[in-house]
Amino acid sequence: MTAQEKFFGHRSGRTILERPGLKYRCAQRYIYFARARDGWIKIGTTNDLRRRLAELRNYTPGGVQLLLTLDGNYHTEAAIHSRFPQYRKNGEWFEPSKPLLEFIETCADV
């Protein structure tokens, strides 16, 4: 079990969905942490990281810097958001607090 799996209590990333008589694989999803020029950090999810970063760079003044990516899904993203509610500023944008930056550093070291 990876450190990420221990933290979230489940495996993230590719998931198999099953219905009677039907089994299919979902697209790979990523959780990304991107810092804007003003320091705020966006925690989001995407299945096309290159496209999403290009979008963020187009509508964020000064662009963004990718800090970290993790395999994950919407549930993983929500679990991360719920760890830092006091630092949430607007939607998926968070203040670059010490606990959030330590979390990013810890995940990057895994």
Structure description:
The protein has 110 residues and is of the alpha+beta class. It has a single domain (3-109), classed as 3-Layer(aba) Sandwich (GIY-YIG endonuclease). It has helices at 3-8, 49-59, 74-83, 98-109; strands at 16-19, 22-25, 30-36, 41-46, 64-71, 88-90, 93-94. Residues 1-19 have low confidence and may be disordered.
Q: Which helices and strands appear, and what pairs or packs with what?
A:
Elements: H1 3-8, E1 16-19, E2 22-25, E3 30-36, E4 41-46, H2 49-59, E5 64-71, H3 74-83, E6 88-90, E7 93-94, H4 98-109
Antiparallel strand pairs: 1-2, 3-4, 3-5, 4-7, 6-7
CATH topology call:
GIY-YIG endonuclease
Overall structural domain count: 1
Number of strand elements: 7
Separation of termini? Answer: 12 Å
What is the CATH architecture descriptor? Answer: 3-Layer(aba) Sandwich
Number of helices: 4
Mean pLDDT, to the nearest integer, reads 82
Q: Per the principal axes of the C-alpha atoms, what is the gross shape?
A: globular
Report helical residue fraction. 25-40%
CATH class: Alpha Beta
Strand order of the largest sheet: 5-3-4-7-6
Percent of residues in beta strands: 25-35%
What class do helices, strands and sheet pairing give?
alpha+beta
Order of helices and strands: HEEEEHEHEEH
**Biggest sheet details:** 5 strands, antiparallel
Return residue spans where pLDDT drops below 50 for at least 5 consecutive residues.
Answer: 1-19
Radius of gyration: 15 Å
